[in-house]
Write a structure and sequence with these properties.
By secondary structure, the protein is of the alpha+beta class. It has five helices and six strands; from the N terminus they run E-E-H-H-H-E-H-E-E-E-H. A hairpin with a 5-residue loop joins strand 5 and strand 6. The N and C termini lie far apart (74 Å).
């Protein structure tokens, strides 16, 4: 506002009105505020969201070479990050271990004998990239390394670093940005599982 000083005191002459956001912007701001208030807790990634579709698991099981069928045990899983209590979503080691164990069992790679299996599969998460806040679509990127080691000799028979990306549409979880980030992270990790299996099948 503008003010003048007369008789030692300020006198208000006029006040400029503040700009009012257009209707579409007001609606978007309101939706963002509502989502932020509703999504008050971090949402860790879950093994179920990393699972390959049943038809893909069946195909991979059928293509699996005999040299790998029932010959793999799960080794170390590391590099995961705990999810913050109040915000975001991360891939934790325990969820990754459960998901990878299910993958090996579902595709026929897992050894059925406790001390059996010629090979050991190891997973290391090298990085996770995601938005601090997801206003619309959520983008998740994971950078992982897989190693397949011969247990008897310790020889490295397969090694691959992968950077996979997945986008979760806003419509999949309209009121929960943390949920969209979780789905994006799980989708990216799921893509890495698919890539891993197809390379082992073709090896």
């Amino acid at each position: 506002f503008r003010a003048s000083h007369r008789d030692g005191g300020p006198t208000v002459r006029s006040m400029r009105s503040l700009p009012v956001p257009p209707p579409r912007r007001r609606a978007a701001l309101f939706a963002l505020l509502a989502a932020t208030l509703l999504a008050g807790c971090g949402t860790p990634a879950e093994p179920d969201g990393m699972r390959l579709a049943e038809i893909e698991r069946m195909q991979l099981r059928g293509w699996l070479p005999e040299s790998l069928r029932g010959q793999v045990v799960l080794g170390t899983v590391e590099g995961g990050v705990p999810t913050a209590r109040y915000w975001g979503s991360r891939l934790g080691n325990e969820a990754l271990r459960v998901a990878l164990d299910e993958l090996l069992r579902g595709t026929g790679l897992m050894s059925l004998q406790p001390d059996g299996g010629r090979y050991e599969l190891r997973l290391k998460v090298l990085g996770q990239a995601q938005p601090w806040i997801s206003v619309l679509d959520a983008n998740g990127t994971v950078y992982v390394e897989y190693r397949l080691v011969e247990r008897a000799s310790g020889q490295l028979v397969y090694q691959r670093q992968m950077r996979l990306h997945h986008v979760t549409p806003w419509s999949d979880a309209m009121l929960d940005p943390n949920e969209r980030i979780r789905l994006a992270n799980e989708g990216a990790l799921r893509h890495s599982f698919s890539e891993l299996m197809r390379e082992l099948v073709d090896a």
